[in-house]
Design goal:
Radius of gyration: 20 Å
CATH topology: Chitinase A, domain 3
CATH class: Alpha Beta
Structural class: alpha+beta
Organism: Parabacteroides distasonis
Strand content: 25-35%
GO molecular function: peptidyl-prolyl cis-trans isomerase activity
CATH architecture: Roll
Protein name: DUF4827 domain-containing protein
Low-confidence stretches: none
Largest sheet: 8 strands, mixed
Pfam family, one: DUF4827
């Protein structure tokens, strides 16, 4: 009896050791993210500014790193009307890439015809949801909403969003995201 129990105990310990080794630690995810962001910046010759430009006008390859770790480039500030947290209903269209391994286009609903896709709705200030059946689980985040304090309706920006500021899905997988273009649309102005 003891011999059978010891064998079972050894097998369980081996299974736990094997299964744990396949999971990345948070530290490993942060290291991988840092390398991926540096690779993206180098490959595209992005210039990282220390300060936000006084006139809010960025050159095509300039980004500012904000206090929360997000890299921002404003293409077009849009209207002077600003979103109000927890009140303004928004839509967005984008072209995004997950940049961890290879720059692979994951999602695009931006463009003249947008391939029959719809803009993604959200309320400014409501961040990612942990319910995988809720669209915000994979499509809405703090990082995506950060530029709204600087821009208005119909604004277009570029963003590099570290996974800890990404959607619940991005956070769970350790996936930083590059928004090649992101356009905000105030629902009331459609």
């Amino acid at each position: 009896m003891k011999k059978g129990f010891n064998i079972l105990l050894i097998l369980c310990a081996a299974l736990v050791a094997i299964s744990c080794s396949k999971t990345k630690s948070y530290t490993d995810m942060l290291k991988d993210e840092k390398k991926a962001i540096e690779r993206l910046i180098d490959a595209n010759d992005f210039e990282i500014l220390d300060d936000f430009p006084k006139d809010s006008i960025f050159k095509e390859n300039q980004f500012v790193k904000l206090e929360n770790g997000i890299y921002l480039n404003i293409i077009d500030k849009g209207s002077s009307e600003r979103a109000v947290q927890y009140k303004t209903k928004m839509l967005y269209r984008c072209k995004l890439h997950y940049i961890l391994e290879v720059d692979t286009l994951v999602y695009e609903n931006y463009g003249p015809h947008s391939n029959g896709t719809y803009p993604i709705p959200f309320t400014y200030g409501d961040y990612s949801n942990s319910n995988p059946y809720d669209p915000s689980y994979q499509w809405v985040s703090e990082g995506l909403q950060t530029p709204l304090q600087y821009v208005g309706d119909r604004a277009r920006v570029k963003l590099i969003v570290p996974f800890k500021r990404g959607t619940y899905y991005d956070q769970s997988k350790g996936l930083p995201v590059y928004y090649e273009i992101l356009e905000y649309i105030f629902e009331e102005n459609l």
